[in-house]
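One chain is below:
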Amino acid sequence: MFLIPLIFLTASSFPPVPLPDQIVTNQFDPLDLKEKQLPRETEKVPQYADAYYNRGFTYYELGDYERAIADYNEAITLDHQYADYYINRGNAYYELGDYQRAIADYNQAITLDPQYALAYYNRGLAYSELGYYQRAIADYNQAITLDTQDADYYIGRGDAYSELGYYQRAIADYNQAITLDTQDADYYIGRGDAYSELGYYQRAIADYNQAITLDTQDAFVYFSRGYAYHELRDKVQSN
């Protein structure tokens, strides 16, 4: 199964925060990654939670998840009512394999904003990593209820259904995801895998072909297609 990448809020998602004169004169760049702290005045200005968030996001992009978490901690200390901070700290915990802490952060984001589809989706991914597929499906259901147009939500649920052996339900979700986005190779691979599990090898091969057209560098899909060809040959010979 392929994991759908977590969805992240970028620094550009935030409007510029007006800077007090004394901070402007410091000419501090919140995305500066040099070994220095934010100005001490930051502690007195809750709006500067965004500065810690932005730097934390940049650390995340660089794969430095521990530093990202440290900055998200500061952002949350300054503004503990903003759901996005918890979501992105949860994402950093997720990348470190600390799924329980990730879930705790997604829980807090949902408490702050019960209509936030992304929080349910990301929590569903964490539940899936822990093998709690029914809980994951419940979260994907809620995410889809709140946002019917995000293909990733259907893929997440489809993957969870596949893990439980509900391949027809998985295929229905992969179909919907492909309807929304025809250019993601992983969607075809997921559906191809489900078809293969059901013994529909020709359909699986067709999906693997499409996946290869979209992404020629994925070695696994060639293996999966080869397996489907092998099984199809044996099936034909046995008949």
Observations:
- Residues 219-238 form the longest helix (20 residues).
- Residues 1-36, 38-44 have pLDDT under 50 and may be disordered.
- Residues 28 and 71 are 16 Å apart (CA to CA).
